[in-house]
Amino acid sequence: MSNRQITGSIAFAGLVLLLGCGGSGGQARAQTPPKADSGVFLLNIRGQITGTDTFTITADGGSRATLVLSINGRKVSATNTIKAVRGRMTEVVTEAQPGGKFTLTLQGGKGKFQVAGNPALNREISVPLRLFPTGNFMPHLLAYALANYDARKGGAQTFDFLLVDNGGQTHGALTRGRSQPLTIKGKPVTITHYALNIQGSQGPVSADLITDSQRRLLYFHVPSQDYRSARDGYQELAAASK
To answer: DSSP secondary-structure letter at 163?
Structure first.
């Protein structure tokens, strides 16, 4: 997940090459939609605000987001829309400028992957029955995996992920850590730490997550990339993640 890799991904340089992913197989378990939410994440790379992730998540698990990013002298804007039924994705559409547009429709363990352009691409692919969205610069999408973490079971729990940047697939593990009370802007907040280990194109990538008691993501940090995303109003959580 280097800056160069991420920028190329969001610009759809590698749309025709889907990453392989071991599916979960068998009958799909119920999938919990994330709670309805909206907000803005401020994207910070090497100490500089480089963009924003502005999002809305609806009660059925659908979502829409707009990404505005300036990195390595390059400006990128993108929109991502997810349609869902009872928390399970049925359609994912991402469009970037500069870049392109892809649509992935999902039903059961199958997907139809379409890329607009000349020539256009239409391909049927296999997907895990339980698939959760994620994106390099769209941290709000981690709400889907967080909503399906089994707190009673605890420990490391595996998830199959769809990369909304380019339609690729990968997998990772989410582990719940400690909870602690804090006061943020004069208001008491109980935060919970999670560790995410996800397979990147050049090996595993580790990230630190902080949520509130409703599992709303407040803060996301990839130490190896010096990349942080804070929900607007929660920037001071940078100190709590250390």
So the answer is: E
CB-CB neighbours of 22 under 10 Å: 10
The first and second tokens of residue 8, run together, are: 């190329």
- Does 121 have pLDDT greater than 80? yes
In a domain, 183, yes or no: yes
Give the count of domains, the chain: 1
Compute how many other C-beta atoms are within 10 angstroms of the C-beta atom of residue 130: 19
Domain range for 103 is 3-16+34-238
pLDDT digits (tens, 9 = 90+) for 142-172: 999 999 999 999 999 999 999 999 889 999 9
**Any idea what the CATH number is for the domain that residue 93 is in?**
2.50.20
- Tallying the residues shown for the chain, one arrives at 242
- Dmax over CA atoms of the chain, in Å, equals 56
pLDDT tens per residue across span 24-50: 433 456 799 999 999 999 999 998 889
Instruction: List phi, psi (to 5°) of 235.
Output: -60, -30
Q: What residue type is 136 in one-letter code?
A: N
